[in-house]
Amino acid sequence: MKLFGSIPSPYVRRIRMLLADASYEFVNLNIFSEQDRATLIRLNPTRKIPMLVDQEQVIFDSNLIYRYLCQKLDLPTLSWPQENQIILINAANDSLVELLICQRSGFDTNDDKLFFNLQRERVGEVLAVLEQQVQAQAFNDWNYAAICLYCLLDWIAFRNLWPMDAFPALNEFVSANQHQPGVASSDPRLAG
Fold it and tell me: Global pTM?
């Protein structure tokens, strides 16, 4: 199996952490370089990462990669509450990616514009719900949902994307899980 992605991506990192004890090859792509972009376009028409190549099978999305790996590696499937947790995490992650791309494109994402307002509103609300869920011990088991939450929160800190002072349970969750398999080896700060 080959996992294609970039070191800083929280979506790629969640799969790398999931595969921490598995045998696979990680192909680090700089999706903005001409050569690596060509590889991305050739393998994945969505032009997004991660993607997993296993013989002739190419899987395009982290959630589908997880489902594929569940079957291939006999991993536990997600419960419906865990599926909802992933949806929450992805919603915040997607909004933060959009805001980061807009910032890098020269937009002031603090402007009072509908698109920016909607993204900020979504992130704030989702983080508040995730804070409540962590307080209610919904992420006590180290599973794929917890891995996804860890990757989101550490990526927020890495990119300095959102003030986290109002979320002590989320901050404690990150601190308490820094020793988990694959956390250190997949740290986005290693990208340089």
Answer: 0.96
